[in-house]
Amino acid sequence: MRIAVTRPVPASLARCELTHLARVPIDIDRATAQHQSYEEALRVLGCAVRHVPIADELPDSLFVEDTAIVLDEVAIVTRPGAPSRRPECDAVARVLAEYRPLQTIAAPGTIDGGDVLRLGRTLYAGRSARTNADGISQLAASVAPFGYSVVEVRTANCLHLKSAVTAVDADRVICNPDWIDARVLDGVDVIGVDPAEPHAANVLRVGHALVCAAQHERTVAALRSRGYDVCAVDVSELAKAEAGVTCCSVIIEELAHP
Predict the structure, then answer these.
(1) Rounded CA separation 211/73 (Å)
(2) Torsion, Cα of 94, 95, 99, 100 (10° steps)
(3) What does the pLDDT read at residue 256?
(4) What is the mean predicted confidence (pLDDT) over 37-64?
(5) 106 near 78, Cβ under 8 Å?
(6) Among 19, 55, 120, 130, which one has the highest count of C-beta atoms within 10 angstroms of its own C-beta?
(7) pLDDT grade, residue 1 (50/70/90)?
(8) Is the pLDDT reported for residue 180 higher than 90?
(9) What global pTM score does this model have?
(10) 137: Cβ contacts below 8 Å, ≥ 6 apart
(11) Active-site residue, from 16, 35, 158, 160
(12) Cβ proximity of 103 and 74 under 8 Å
């Protein structure tokens, strides 16, 4: 069983944090409909969707990925780089506590879940505008007892590491090489995005399937041609808030003996 932790679109989404995009109007009804379709896609792929209560006072609260890093052994509650986002964490932590023991990132460390990519027992941690060296150091100390290593990755021109690279298999990623130095992914097979779709490296792996943004048509076609089961979802309205398909959920593998 897989649990997909999600949080509804807040009425205040138009006031979200923006780093690399210009602010444009967001249709909340359309964003909500897209988010519900995204949740339905996760259900079709075998996830049980678990809602964190809506928080209209927190504009970025639907982006639950940034509040936690969930491994088989532990869930690490983050300390987001944007101060306005730190109040999002408590409600998510209360849900995650039902599935995993919790650890936390403390000041002055900052880390967003969107900056952490897991491949096997390696966690790649993006050094971004939202994640600092102290946050990465705390993450490394937290996961070392469970046999994980942490590799720091410098990002450029993107919000999070997972804006630039995500996993499509246990040992294969899709990557925008303009936003990270892919050589840091030593021993990992790298698929490059089509240059016309620079944001297409953000895909969500759910079991053997991949959730991709429908607007990245070339990437969807390329992954399907490689034999991947691709579920394309329209997140175009959510993308105005710098959303990708990974950031709207936290996927938890429910263990037989947690």
Answers:
(1) 25
(2) -40
(3) 57
(4) 98
(5) no
(6) 130
(7) confident
(8) yes
(9) 0.96
(10) 109
(11) 160
(12) yes
Q: What is the mean pLDDT of residues 33-47?
A: 98
| Dihedral sign, Cα of residue 22, residue 55, residue 130, residue 98 | negative
Q: Mark whether 212 is an active-site residue.
A: no
Ramachandran angles phi, psi of 161, nearest 5°: -55, -40
Q: Strand 165-169 relative to strand 250-253: parallel, antiparallel, unpaired?
A: unpaired
First to last CA, the chain: 13
Helix (H, G, I), strand (E, B) or coil at 91: helix
Asked if residue 53 has pLDDT above 50, the reply is yes
If DSSP codes are grouped into helix, strand and coil, which group holds residue 195?
coil
35 among known catalytic residues: no
Q: From CA 117, how far away is CA 236, in angstroms rounded?
A: 23
Average pLDDT of the segment spanning 191-212: 96
Scored b (16 or more CB within 10 A) or e, 89-127 reads bebbbebbeebbeebebeeebbbbbbbbbbbeeebbbbb
Name the strands in the sheet holding 250-253, side by side, starting at the edge strand that comes first in the sequence. 47-51, 2-6, 250-253
Percent of the chain at pLDDT exceeding 90? 96
pLDDT of 18-28, one tens digit each?
Answer: 998 999 999 99
Tokens 């959510």 correspond to: 238
**Mean pLDDT across the stretch 120-134?**
97
| Pair of tokens at residue 1 | 């069983």
Contact (Cβ atoms closer than 8 angstroms) between residue 241 and residue 16: yes
Read off the tokens for 130: 């939202």
Cα separation, 125 vs 155, in Å, equals 10
Structure tokens at 197: 């779709």
